[in-house]
Amino acid sequence: MIPRPLMFFGTTNLDLCFNVDRLPTPGETLLGTLVRNPGGKGANQAVAAARLGLRPYFYTRLGDDEAGRALLRSLQEAGVRTDAVEVCPGELSGSAMVMVGDDGANMIVIDPGANLKATPATVEKAAAFIEPGTIVVAEMGIPIAALERLCALKADRGFELIFNPAPVRTGLSTEAWRSVDYITPNQTETFELTGVEVVGFESAAEAALKLLEFGPKAALITLGAQGTYYRDGSRSFAMPAFPVKVLDTTAAGDAFNGGFAAFLAQGLPVRDAIRKATAVAALCVTRRGAQESMPTARTVDEFLNQQTVLELE
Fold this sequence. Notes:
The chain is of the alpha/beta class.
């Protein structure tokens, strides 16, 4: 079966990653080890899909600087199609400072740089790469006005939209929410959107109903080590996570989103796509870094052959 076309819209950053024994408290100074990695939510998601064998297009904005050139090269080497990427003279590429403790927990601060200057016009230009039937994935790191334009293009372009509302920001219109096919927040993002504190599958079920009231056709809440909860207008189920030894939780959500989009593009039913995306996220957290932690399709299949996960209706 020929996969459906796939395109991502989002941010790209150079990650400055400090590996520390534990995360610091306010006012505390710790020693750590610094590594520089390609990152950014949209870029991570696109690379996750590419590592699984897809050839996704990606729209992002990079500065015409050393970081931007390295980030562009990294995307291309991963197999991401960069025809829609804007390289912007005089602007700085986005960057992030990431601290990761030995328990895998992290803290992240982002300077968006060129990412913040995406506009409705630049998004519409990039949308020329969207064919009918494309699965489009968008995250909330780009400006609201640019997201609004992407959502408005859905009816004419005929694509399916996965929306990862991270980082959560206000201002998205009712019309834009109604264009979303799948919304994929984590627990924190779900709380910010709905006011429901998600601590397990029961509270996720309550929150998912509130998310559907915004207008999306389906809600897919990720609960970290607990798993994922799914609800649409006719069914719901929980997918427990796979038990793994966590090394670094950076980009786990991006791994899930990229994997979910890739498996839908390959024609898998939603439940199967979620199960395989859950495996992608599980493998991601066993490795350090963001894009370099994304597993290949073969690694995912080998991992799943050794696992048993039962859905909880």
